[in-house]
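User: Predict the structure for this protein chain, please.
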Amino acid sequence: MRNSRNGAVRIAAALALLFACLQAPSANPFMGAQTGANGKQVRQASPVRAYAGDRGLVAKQATLRDALGDYFYSWKESGSRSLFWGIIGVSFLYGILHALGPGHRKTVIFSLYLARKAPPWEPAGTGALLALLHAGAAVILLLALRGVTGAISGRADDITVYMEGFAYVLLIAVALYLVVQAIRDLARGANDGKADALGLGTILVTGVYPCPGAILILVLSLTLDITGIGILAVLAMSLGMSVPIIASGYLAWFGRTGLFLALKSNGTKLARVSAAVELFGYSFLLVFAFYMAEPFMLSLLRNALSR
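Assistant: Here is the predicted structure, written as structure tokens:
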């Protein structure tokens, strides 16, 4: 336990130093573009790597967004109960389709539950909480920016770039620590499970960045002055987003459980396979997090060098 605690402390200290070094020369997302000591404008950080997504899926999302906008306008005029449930239903469906696209920690959740032993209920709880944190962060951010001058959606997008970028940087640091622990477990043929708790907690923490889809819904509701219904729509959307995330978690959980049941009669082989699967899962998580964060980290480095 002492080793795990010391490792977590070292990671936290390293991250604090990293954030202090990188944020200083970077443009402030709350204040817009800045200039460096040489008088040149410092560029905003690049967002983490993203994919265009399936065109058919994107088109369906756009259709649901348009329908939700129509419902918002109509509800503002009439406030009927049928329109309310229409808004909730469309938001839920939009959340499912939105989470089926790139991002939303599906790969991260898959890697986690491939690597760690967990009770049957945990992937569902983790997926639901992750989606709620993702959407809840958008609600808090938009409410905080409501009185700020300028385009609120643009400022929210700028802040989201930094929050998501540093979330992946944190994920890289913890995944690296977990890989080292997994190598140690593989060498000694045992796993105390202490590092697994650190991985779960970190993934939940890194989910606290605003969801772009939720921001779109909230900006529209703020524009129409129906913030309350907008927040309810985002909560319904978060429930929808949790469906693909939970499915991803259980896909890994059932695969791991089935493998270990097949090896149950051989205790020595089970321990070695468990350690190997853990190492693979956390290594995959490390590679994925680094791949996603690479554009963000390189942009911070370029900003630092342009001072």
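The CA atoms of residues 18 and 42 lie 19 Å apart.
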